[in-house]
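Possible regression after last week's pipeline update?

I re-ran a chain I had predicted before the update to compare outputs. Posting the input and the new output here so someone can diff against the archived version. Not blocking, just want to make sure nothing changed silently.
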Amino acid sequence: MHKVAIKMGLIAGAALLGMSAVPLSPAIAQQEINLTVAAGQPTRAMRPLAMVETYFVPEVDKRMAAAGLDKKYKINWKQAYAGSLLKPTFVLQGVSDGIADIGFEPTIFHPDKLPLEQISFATPFVTSDVVQVGKVIDKLHATIPEYKAQYDKFGVVRLGGSSFDSYELFSTFPVKKFDDIKGKKLATAGAALQWIRGTGATPVDSNMTLYYNNAKTGVIDGFIIFPSANPGMKYSEAAPYVTKVGFGAQYAAALIINKGVYDKLPAEVRKILHEVAADWTKVADTTQQEAGDSAFDNAPKDFSGAQKFVLPREEQTKWANAMPNIAKEWADRLDKQGQPGTKALSAYMDEMRKAGAKPVRDWDKQ
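New output (post-update):
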């Protein structure tokens, strides 16, 4: 079991001049805190994860120094990314077991263990504002106890979260209206497969590492993914038509810390971790939003032959209304498990509307 290591050192001075000695200065105790941060993916794969390394870790040190806490405490960071310590689907358990102290946990991998965290995937067509999704998710964590309780069961504390830019459609054929997808094979992953139900298209369970080759070889006709992945994965080479359907920004990951480690930290250090994590959420979400907008806008410039379209509101409505009410299904399922599914759904949609979102479909009311 990992423990916060504390080492006591004496900062003292003594000068010997001939037979004379200067007395030792008073002992100053410095507490050394060892923290290991782990993630299953390489930092280049996700901007929020990259910003754990480039923003969260150095910003904690910076604020410790600004508050004068570096005289009392020294954090020794060890960072282990790309699955070198924990595989992508094992971060939650690995931090729970103390293999790592802090972890970048992809919540989308655990709909069974973190069911309430899946709410944005159950409510497509609500908002493409990544920052707003982050704010509302944080409010749910602050106001609905069961959100925190999900993590309590695993002996971890959620410090912050991050979201992806709005999922959109990449295809080998142009999509300018809803009817264009009928009879086509569309791939995506996990909970996003529900967005194809009732549309007349055939859902294909896949993942972002397979989309390029499968589209190139005709195994699929298109796939749903966040555009910020396009420059790195070169999706538009295989699927040159990019359509802004507006499935919406999706909450997808959390920064968590082992509760035993957390409880042993000095209160002033815990406070800084929370403050920096909250700012990491804002900075990472803003960066993700900008990256997604840029990737969509620049697809024709970056990829020869690429074309972009924006699905009109009336066509979005046709898509959303063709689907069963997957949000109600999600909420009812959680209610039966003793979780506040209906309460969370109502709160999420209300907060979004209060913030100015104009959902294509009011999932909590229809």
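Follow-up from reviewer: compared with the archived run. The chain is about 40% helix and 20% strand. Marking as no regression found.
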